[in-house]
Amino acid sequence: MKIVVFFISIILFLISLGTHVASKFRIVLPEAFYSIHFFAILLFASGLFLKLFQNKSKEKNGVFEGIPPIFTTFGGILVLYAVFNFFSSLGSVGNGVPHVVENGKFYISGRNVPKREITMEEYIDLKSKISSGFSGHWLLFLYVSVLLWYPVKENQKPEDT
User: Fold this and answer.
1) What are the distances in angstroms from CA 115 to CA 45, 98, 110?
2) How far from chain centre, in Å, is Cα 38?
3) DSSP secondary structure string for all residues of 59-104
């Protein structure tokens, strides 16, 4: 079961990576891609709960014990990137959320009240920044999920760092 969840985590990480790269090329993806958010939280929370439960019952020291250091180092780099990405993408969105109205016009709205009309270029730019912000933290949470579900042998000693 753990190996299946591990591979699901890898697949979702790769999907979120593709979503993130697409957002950097200003490709607006369907709203259905935001369902990855639910699975990222589910895999992260369940993996963390499982690791903490296992560590408590087996007197292990760390959540990432037994995982090769190169993977945990990449995770640290991904944390820094996720913070940078958050401020560079979502921080530059400003007030309001882009919406499309039925007659083909684009608006920025706050609390579902249209504030002003925007061009299609502004709409695509705002949607891609929002997608980049979300997919950036999906990368982080899904990568940590991959590490949490990483198959470690029970008798394996942790590698020296």
Assistant:
1) 37, 10, 7
2) 10
3) T---TTTTS-HHHHHHHHHHHHHHHHHHHHHGGGT-SSEEEE-TTS
Q: Concatenated DSSP letters for 33-69?
A: GGGHHHHHHHHHHHHHHHHHHHHHHHT---TTTTS-H
d(CA 81, CA 49): 25
Per DSSP, what are the bridge partners of residue 99?
107
Question: Is 6 in a helix, a strand, or coil?
Answer: helix
CA distance 20 to 26: 10
Q: Measured between alpha carbons, how far is 85 from 68 in angstroms, rounded to an integer?
A: 26
Query: Do the Cβ atoms of 136 and 86 come closer than 8 Å?
Result: yes
Give the CB-side neighbour count of residue 115, counting CA atoms within 13 A.
Answer: 11
Q: Which residues contact 117 (CB under 8 A, 6 or more apart)?
A: 105, 106, 107
Tell me: the pLDDT tens digits for 81-115?
999 998 888 777 776 677 777 688 888 877 777 77
46-77 pLDDT tens trace? 999 988 887 776 655 678 888 899 999 999 99
Half-sphere exposure of 98 (CA within 13 A, CB side): 22
